[in-house]
């Protein structure tokens, strides 16, 4: 059921962005208020406004939105989720495709946190309830390595390491065409796509985002690249490579060729989190974990090599 609220903008809110004002006045997150504005759910004096428009004192603000359902952790087993390492403070998993990092509104499939709960793992309680123990994420359509904190001390220290860019995150991706130069750095800000609530893009005013890449192998229509992330923005590799006109093969959301994707049998982006290295949050020792390509990515790579 839709909810709706209408009120005059208080004088103290004059000049604020729409998403900031709506978030403050309705007690919503700024992300949710921006999504409401993007969906056309905010009107100012009867006129639809965007999230970055400004409100004025005494203007009549109308907000209509679909309340988010309560997000719960469902203990659903995931048979092909592999435990790479486990101790009292953290667990490293090799996440299969089709599994989200944690529960979220709009996602009804399995999650890493739910799979760990089903397997009897206890994780840290720090963070929002649906993301307890989660210190970084992979897209549901991206496979590979993830670390989850089990103790509160590990959660705090791992979050710090990720925030301070001390964690080494290495991915392999197959992208369309041949990057020029073959090795390089993409330094371009990323923010929400102006035309879609679910996509991201290189935009003015976005968050600083830095991606390093090296070409490993070239094929007639694509290239296998190794990618190292300095930052960890949502969809960062997918957005940066698409912005260079080299989207990940299979990534239809960001402009990949559907004909090539079908020919390779891909139903998701060719992107895999290969290596993860950091200092153990308790012992301080440097640890490193690695993963191999899952079957669907190996099959696509073999098809490219056979061209």
User: What is the straight-line distance between the termini?
Assistant: 53 Å
Catalogue the unreliable spans: none
Number of helices: 7
Class from secondary-structure proportions: alpha+beta
Radius of gyration: 21 Å
Helix % is: 10-25%
Mean pLDDT: 92
Key features of this structure:
alpha+beta; 7 helices; 4-stranded antiparallel beta sheet; 9-stranded mixed beta sheet
Can you walk through the features of this model?
This protein has helices at residues 18-26, 30-38, 112-118, 152-163, 236-243, 258-263, 295-305, and strands at residues 3-8, 42-44, 47-48, 60-65, 82-86, 90-95, 143-149, 168-176, 183-187, 190-192, 200-202, 210-218, 222-229, 271-279, 286-290. The chain is α+β, with helices and mostly antiparallel strands and 307 residues long. The strands form three sheets. Strands 5, 6, 7, 8, 9, 12, 13, 14 and 15 form a nine-stranded mixed β-sheet that branches. The longest helix has 12 residues, at 152-163.
Concise account of the structure shown:
The protein is α+β, with helices and mostly antiparallel strands and 307 residues long.
Blueprint (SSEs and pairs):
Blueprint: E1 3-8, H1 18-26, H2 30-38, E2 42-44, E3 47-48, E4 60-65, E5 82-86, E6 90-95, H3 112-118, E7 143-149, H4 152-163, E8 168-176, E9 183-187, E10 190-192, E11 200-202, E12 210-218, E13 222-229, H5 236-243, H6 258-263, E14 271-279, E15 286-290, H7 295-305
Parallel strand pairs: 7-14
Antiparallel strand pairs: 1-4, 2-3, 2-4, 5-6, 6-7, 8-13, 8-14, 9-12, 10-11, 12-13, 14-15
Helix pairs in contact: 1-2
């Amino acid at each position: 059921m839709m909810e709706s609220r209408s009120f005059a903008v208080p004088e103290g809110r004059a000049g604020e962005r729409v998403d900031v004002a709506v978030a403050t006045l309705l007690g919503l997150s700024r992300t949710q208020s921006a999504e409401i504005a993007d969906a056309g759910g905010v009107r100012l004096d009867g006129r639809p406004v965007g999230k970055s428009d400004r409100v004025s004192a005494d203007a009549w603000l109308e907000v209509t939105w679909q309340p988010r359902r309560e997000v719960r952790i469902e203990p659903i087993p995931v048979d092909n989720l592999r435990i790479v390492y486990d101790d009292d403070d953290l667990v490293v998993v090799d996440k299969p495709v089709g599994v989200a990092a944690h529960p979220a509104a709009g996602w009804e499939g399995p999650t890493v946190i739910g799979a760990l709960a089903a397997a009897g793992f206890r994780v840290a309680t720090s963070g929002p309830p649906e993301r307890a123990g989660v210190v970084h994420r992979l897209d549901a359509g991206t496979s590979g390595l993830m670390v989850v904190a089990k103790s509160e001390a590990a959660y705090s220290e791992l979050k710090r390491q990720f925030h301070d860019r001390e964690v080494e995150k290495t991915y392999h991706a197959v992208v369309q065409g041949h990057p020029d130069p073959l090795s390089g750095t993409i330094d371009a800000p990323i923010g929400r796509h102006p035309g879609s609530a679910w996509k991201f893009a290189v935009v003015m005013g976005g968050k600083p985002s830095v991606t390093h890449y090296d070409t490993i192998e070239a094929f007639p229509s694509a290239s296998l690249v190794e990618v190292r992330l300095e930052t960890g923005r949502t969809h960062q590799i997918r957005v940066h490579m698409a912005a260079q006109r080299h989207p990940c093969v299979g990534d239809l959301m960001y402009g990949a060729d559907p004909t090539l994707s079908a020919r390779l049998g891909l139903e998701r982006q060719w992107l895999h989190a290969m290596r993860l290295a950091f200092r153990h949050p308790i012992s301080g020792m440097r640890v490193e974990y690695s993963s191999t390509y899952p079957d669907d990515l190996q099959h696509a790579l073999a098809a490219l090599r056979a061209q």
